[in-house]
Every structure is written in C-alpha cells, then in structure tokens.
Amino acid sequence: MSGNAYALPGRKNWYDLDGSWNTSFPFGWEDPADGFRGHVFISSDNSTIILSIKGTTVQGPSSKKDKFNDNLLFSCCCARVDISWVFRTVCDCYAKNWRCDNTCLSEALIQDSLFYSVGVNLVEDLLFIYPTANIWLVGHSLGGALASLLGSTFGLPAVAFEAPGERLAAKRLHLPLPPPLLNGSASPVPITHAGYALETRCHLGKSIVFDTVNVLGWKVDVRKHVIKDVITKVLEADVIDWEDGQNVPLPREEEDCVDCFKWEFGEYKGDR
C-alpha cells in the first residue's frame, strides 16, 4: 500500500492487493504538481481504512513541492545549512549566530497549503465518513513522516518506511510522541545536497532497523532509498536471521538521539 501511493491502478509499479481490500480511491492526482497524493484503501466490510501517502519524487511535476515540504519539516532552521544556502531557505526564522526562532518555526509548519495541513483535513474527513472504522496511516520517505505526524496528531496507528527524522517537526507542532518506523541501514536519509536539507535523524516511537549493510552486504547509498527495494529486497528477502534469530528485527526506541546540536532555539523574534 505504501508503494502504491506512487502509482495509479494498472500501472507497472502498482502492487495488486488481496481480495479483502476491494475498494480504494486516489487523492491528490488531479494536479500533477501537487505532491500530496496517495490512496485510501478500504476493507470489504468497511471496518479498516488505510491512508497511504506518497513520499518525495526527485524528478517530476511534484518534485518542487516535495522538496519544499522536506526542507521545511526536516531541516534545522528553514534549510539554512550554511551561508551558501541563504537564497534557498524555506522560511524566515533565522536569528543570526546559529539561532532560530521557535514560534516562527511552529507557525511555518501549519500553513494551509503545506502537506501536513492538507493531511489534517483529509484525516478529519475520513474520521467523519468512517466514524467506527479502524484507520491506519502508512507511507514511505516523506509520506512516512507525514503518516507518523498525522498519526500523532489524531492518536491513530502509523507505520513509516524509511522516513526522515520527524521527531523535531513533531515537537515544533506540539504533538505527543508515539508511532513506529521501519528503516534500512543502507538507506541514509539525512542529506544536504541537490537542494535538499534533510538534517534531522531522530524518530518518533520505536524503530525497526533492518541491517542491510551487514546482513545483505549493501553499501550505504541514498539510491537504496526507494520503496521498491524495501519491498522486493528487504521485506521479501529470503533472510531467516535478521537479528538474534528473528525474521523481523525487534522494535526499539532511539536512545540519546539529538538533532541540530549546534543550533540554539528560542524566542528571537526581535533578532530576525
């Protein structure tokens, strides 16, 4: 379902589901440049709803909006990595000398046009239409982080695959800190090149980390950060022992994880 957020039914990258999911409808596909898209999957008895959210598309009509939301959610301060990024920032919260205004950051994340705010409206609609259903949120990469943030917002279960660190964004949105995450050790998400400022690495809830470097012999490579590899080369891999004889690694909370250690965050409105 997370993989299908990138595709439409009948396309070559669409994964057929079993018969218990006999209804689905797409959202966000009308405008090719609108990056917030995916599918809502409904079980045959309407008891379970799965909201699947698309992640970042590097090349394509939605890449500009995807990158903007990535940099706003997962950078330390408006995608100001260093002085060379001064003309590529995504908000105006920098307050000189590695300081950043907290209130400004929180307000920047809740603009109506941003993916998180659009997602809030969509989940509210689903809760209204299916008041008694079990609603789950899933996604890959940016979509996984959004699923996690929306899950925290509404107290719904969420599963994120290879998501950037969303804990700092959750704090800026003043959210509680629950859901789980699935990651592979060969898929590094924190990057600061090609216009992306994905600096955060700390996650909400517990992480299931597949050690693809030691178990599968992969090299650390951002090109492994695709949902197809997660499905076909990790989840479907013929590996009996990922960790201590387990078919799936144990979920663990991240201990002593710190984001943006060189930055100082506070109320610096007058210094901007």
What does this entry look like structurally?
23% of the residues lie in helices and 16% in strands. The chain is α/β, with parallel strands linked by helices. The protein has a single domain (3-266), classed as Rossmann fold (3-Layer(aba) Sandwich). The protein has an 8-stranded mixed sheet with strand order 1-2-3-5-6-7-8-9. Strands 4-10 form a two-stranded parallel sheet. Helix 3 (115-129) packs across helix 4. The radius of gyration is 19 Å and the shape is globular.
Mean pLDDT: 86
- The low-confidence parts are 184-188
Indicate the CATH architecture: 3-Layer(aba) Sandwich
- The oligomeric status of these chains comes to single chain
Please give the domain count. Answer: 1
Question: Regarding CATH, which class?
Answer: Alpha Beta
The helix/strand series, from N terminus to C terminus, equals EEEHEHHEHEHEEHEE
Main beta-sheet annotation:
8 strands, mixed
Helical segment count: 6
Provide the spatial order of strands within the biggest beta sheet.
1-2-3-5-6-7-8-9
Family: Belongs to the AB hydrolase superfamily. Lipase family.
Protein name: triacylglycerol lipase
Subunit structure: Binds to both phosphatidylinositol (PI) and phosphatidylinositol 3,5-bisphosphate (PIP2).
Organism: Armillaria tabescens (Ringless honey mushroom)
